[in-house]
Amino acid sequence: MNSHIQANKKMFLDDERMPPGDESQWRICRSSNDAMQAMLQQGVPDFISFDHDLGGDDTAMIFVKWLIDKDLDSLGFIPAEFSFEIHSQNPIGAHNLRQTLYGYLTYRDQGPRAAVQAPTLPDKESHTLANILYIHGHGSSGNSEKATQLKAQLESLGHKVHVPTHQSDPRIDLRMLEGMMESEGIEAVIGSSLGGLYALLLSERFGTSAFLINPSLHPEDSVFREHSERSAIKAALDSFKTDAPDKKEWPDNGYSQLDWPRITMAIAMDDERIDVPYTVETLTRAHTLKFHDGRGHQFKNVGDLVPHIVEWLKR
Question: Do 81 and 131 have their domain in common?
């Protein structure tokens, strides 16, 4: 365990800027080496605010990797109550820092064997049946293996599952799905990746339950990043939000109309396509199932989710 006396409970790692508020409450470090020496002398603080670029070839990633190695060598070097933020203006560097440190802390605190325990499936006659809409991800279809597997298993339990194929274009898809919600009397929505975002937006608009599988909250920065009409696609997503007229920067103003107890998210912690820490943080009020068993963005063995989906439908 870490026995060093913590002179400061917070550390600010930045080669130029000063921390907010009372500077006396912070240990200010200007380089990765400065930060390492501070940890060896005073121990790891409860909170660190990271810049990424520290001048020249120096970056905070050097310090983060050192910090993780020290904790692996001596479990507890990073305290259990530790938290952090990234204040860097380098978006790629910030993303890499967040993924690396968040991923390690999640692995350490929950462990690779901390499997999500699935509830027992009820008998077909013993639970309320639902009219469900499943929305696939970008570039997929209603006939994909994931969609077919979930539809078959849920319908074997008596649920009705609608699985349309959309165009992977929010300007077209959201209105089509909105019409289906109304015409088919949809009571619950399941969505994967881009479909997870669609499910979230429809849930807010219609007040239905939503089950999100590796939702892509900012597709304009991933699958649509190089699209010639990226701005128009982002505008379509923005405008579909219930509180769009009052928003500042979607979705950071908060999904104000969501009924959070009815939102469940299943997320693979090794998802290689979405920003996992950002997604978990943004949807922190949702019921979240974190999977640490190598499912990736594709979410392998998606049928394992069926007992969780049935449990979600009870809420």
Answer: no
Cβ atoms of residues 45 and 63 within 8 Å: no
Q: Name the domain count of the chain.
A: 2
CA dist., res. 291 & res. 117, Å (int) = 10
Number of Cα atoms under 13 Å in the Cβ half of residue 9: 5
pLDDT at 101: 87
Q: What is the DSSP letter of 96?
A: H
Give the pLDDT confidence of 78-122 residue by residue, as tens digits.
988 888 888 888 878 888 888 888 878 877 766 543 456 666 655
Please tell me whether residues 297 and 164 are part of one structural domain. Answer: yes
pLDDT higher than 90, residue 4:
no
What are the angstrom distances between the C-alpha of 4 and each of 28, 93, 217? 18, 30, 41
98 and 182, same domain (yes or no): no
Expressed as residue numbers, the domain containing 85 is 10-110
Residue 280 host element (H or E): helix 276-282
8 A C-beta contact, residue 46 and residue 2 = no
Alpha-carbon span 179 to 185, nearest angstrom: 10
Domain boundary (41, 76, 110) is at 110
Residue-level pLDDT at 117: 60
Confidence at residue 249, expressed as pLDDT on a 0 to 100 scale: 45
**Calpha distance 12→276 (Å, rounded):** 24
Phi, psi of 52 (to 5 degrees): -100, -55
> Taking the alpha carbons of 214, 218, 220, 222 in that order, is the dihedral positive or negative?
negative
Question: Which of 110, 144, 165 represents a domain boundary (last residue)?
Answer: 110
Instruction: Give yes or no for residue 38 having a pLDDT over 90.
Output: yes
pLDDT in tens, 161-206: 999 999 999 999 999 999 999 999 999 999 999 999 999 999 988 9
